[in-house]
Amino acid sequence: MIYRTLGRTGAPVGVIGLGCEYLINQPASQIVSVVREALDAGVNYFDLFYAQPAIRDAYGEALAGRRHQVMVAGHLGASYQDGPDGQYARTRDLAVSEAYIHDLLRRLRTDYLDVLFLHNCDEPDDYEVVITRHRELAERFRQQGKARYLGFSSHTPATALRAVTSGAVEVLMFPIHLLEHAQEERTALLSACVEHNVGVVAMKPYAGGKILQEHASAAVTPVACLSYALAQFGVATVVPGAANLAQLRDALHYLDATAAERDFSPALRQLGAVGATSACVYCNHCLPCPVGIDIGAVTRALDLARRGAQEAARQAYARLATPASDCLQCGDCASRCPWHLDPPAAMAAAAALLE
Ligand code: SF4
Ligand code: SF4
Fold first, then answer.
1. First and final C-alpha spacing in the chain
2. Which secondary-structure segment (H or E) carries 203?
3. Which of 210, 280, 294, 298 to mutate to test the pocket of ligand 2 (most atoms within 8 A of CB)?
4. CATH number for the 3-270 domain, one of 3.20.180.20, 3.20.20.70, 3.30.1020.10, 3.20.20.100?
5. pLDDT digit string, tens, across residues 114-138
């Protein structure tokens, strides 16, 4: 493993960390084996924003006896809705937020988190709430010894910049991938992170899988994506998702990759015509849906179908518990999409194409 310092926390973190998005709903044994192999490879930074009990319990089992070797990041403001689908839900309810941190500590079999993120904050109004009320609660966790460092997770450069320059947080979690190369606002944000010594955790290095699904080539590889993220200002670690050991090993290959494999300039050239994110990255930040639609998964199936992979799209779609045709067109999800996409329109398109 190669280690970098995580901003002014001073903590050494492996350049390859692990996100949890692809591990959701995987069997516990699979989660445990992925986390343990990551540990054996020297991964020491694990982000765990999901609140579903199963993934938290599996992480607790995987980290048993090794908790002291790693940094674990939890998110204040991440919860989930009980019920058959158990969907992720962002919350600004302080009591609910607090309860989910206690739940995380208990299921991880630990009494502290290394980084406690103010979770998923993009809009100016929400920033005012989060940087006051949630931060106060986060500071209380820190005073109680239950959190070592405070972080801020966001998808919006202007909002993230406010947090970084406020002096309130030591870590920023932000999406960094090839498709958003050279965006001026992002560059300014990352420069500010360097200036304020805020450690950057790069999330979504594959743009929710889109880069590899749509552009994979000899140039566009997991190593190139990770190498790109790690080359940006202020980035200490990148947290790719890995649904299984094969995907984890693809990411860990960064560590013994050749200079040519790490050279992401051919990937940039190949993707040169692709601009800012204007399409879904399947992150499900737009949940919860009142009828239980897995919006990210439906949109992923829709994109597959639109790219001509009809059979794979139909198979993926058939596995979903709630069809897109159940969509009420209420628009709640659209207001929560960090990229201001139109998921109700995607639901209508999916229903037309896949049902
Ligand atoms: S618009 Fe449709 S998909 Fe979006 S939250 Fe409402 S019911 Fe769910
Ligand atoms: S519509 Fe937006 S929030 Fe929802 S899954 Fe897609 S990118 Fe994420």
1. 47
2. strand 199-203
3. 280
4. 3.20.20.100
5. 999 999 999 999 999 999 999 999 9
